[in-house]
Amino acid sequence: MLPKYRQLAGQLRDEITAGGSEGGRLLSERRLALAHKVSRQTVRQALALLAEEGIIEKRRGSGSYAVSGNGENRSRIAFLMPGEESYFPEAVVQEIESVCRKRRYTAQFCLTGGKLAREREILQQLCRDPAGGICVAGIRTALPNPNLDLYRYLKSAGTAIVFAGSPYRGLEDTLFVSMDNIAGGHLAVRHLMSRGHTRIACVFESRDMQDLERYGGCVSAVRDYGLEMQEDCYLWLSGQESGICVPGGLPAGQSGRPEDPGARVSGQGPEMFRDKAGAPEEFWIRAAKRIRTSCSAAVCRDAKTARMLAAALRTFGTDVPEDFEILCFRDDSGPENAEPLFPSLVCAGQHPARVAADCLLRMLSGKTVSPVRLSWRLEPAARSAGETAAIP
Fold first, then answer.
1. Which end of the chain is more exposed for a tag (fewer CB within 10 A), N or C?
2. Using alpha carbons only, how large is the chain's radius of gyration in Å?
3. Is 177 in contact with 136 (CB distance < 8 Å)?
């Protein structure tokens, strides 16, 4: 999650570019603090960031003013990021800002909130006020995206675009920096098999292309090592809006089977599948009952999903990891994951967003850049941090 001053800077930036207030005076620091319910220090930091980007100018004794311009700032790089997740951890954001500054570029971070409508608003602003380049963390990348027209327009207008993660369908020819998720899924199953597990469950997100790739790696490993397919224990979260999960080997809409009405639950996303008392909701109870009966281990899409499954398993008296092992993918390095509760697959090198920023800067300098697939490495849980994981 971005700090408050960065969020405020984004809001003010949108108001300036969308409201036609070029040359106009902004509210005072005190009034901005009251209007946005933040401290004056937060306002000062946000205004300093906008001044560095060249969007406003500070006039001593007079205040801050929106800068009039010709609608084009090719020395700016826009980073579109979800915001509610830690895909761009603050340490990575600071590193990206630093490397951009050294190359005489300004980094502008725009929060989509995981919403396609908000992504479209940002892209429309970038069409009116073009940046030199755009780095995108996509939204529901396994599904068709309604904003492809704007991406294509920006590309045709000379804006360099890089995806930090899987590119949208229809933009596969666009440069991307992604994890090697097929290899990651294969590695996850291989590690659990080395721990003696032959019946392995999976919990993934059906709208995320990287999860579909991880699923492909998992089932390939199951086939390669002659393990038994546990199709009823391959569970698919269908997203934050619907809260549906479908048992079976493929996501809803790809298996040809109707959704399981018994799998429909309330809540929004894995972290919300709890009742008011904090106990796992009925779906996770049913999922845990099915999984613990058929399997002895599971691969989960992220740490949140792993925590929910572990909590549900414990309601049956199943100890994690003594009775049941969980391995999860980790796409971020946020504070909450400083000491992982579960063995995790993490990026073996630099964060994908940092690598994507480097690729974008190289493109802007006229160099030829190819898509990048980054490797995974296994990180043990905190309780066994001193042990060496054996992977054949």
1. C
2. 23
3. no
Give the span between the Cα atoms of 327 and 5, in whole angstroms.
35
pTM metric for this prediction: 0.73
In our burial notation (b when 16+ CB lie closer than 10 A, e otherwise), range 280-311 reads bbebbbbbbebbbeebbbbbbbbbbbbbbbbb
The Cα–Cα gap between 354 and 88 comes to: 9
* Cα(9)–Cα(108) distance, integer angstroms: 9
3-state secondary structure 208-271: CHHHHHHHHHHHHHHHHCCCCCCHHHEEEECCCCCCEEEECCCCCCCCCCCCCHHHECCCCCHH
User: Alpha carbon of 371 to those of 142, 144, 163, 279, 333: distances in Å?
Assistant: 18, 21, 9, 43, 23
Angstrom distance (rounded) from CA 138 to CA 116: 9
Domains of the chain: 1-69 (1.10.10.10), 181-347+377-384 (3.40.50.2300)
List, in sequence order, every residue forming a beta bridge with 107; answer none if it has no partner: 77
Q: What is the pLDDT of residues 113-142, one digit of tens each?
A: 889 999 999 999 899 888 889 999 999 999
Interval 68-105: pLDDT, tens: 554 445 688 999 988 755 567 777 888 888 888 888 88
Dihedral sign computed on CA atoms, order 329, 161, 84, 385: positive
Rounded to 5, what percent of the chain is helix, strand, coil?
Answer: 40, 20, 40
DSSP 294-313: H-SEEEESSHHHHHHHHHHH
Joined together, the tokens standing for residue 282 give 């009925």
Q: What is the 3-state secondary structure (H, E, C) of 137-155?
A: CCCCCCCCCCCHHHHHHHH
In the numeric block, the tokens 């919300």 are attached to 272
Query: Residue 143 — φ and ψ, nearest 5°?
Result: -110, 155
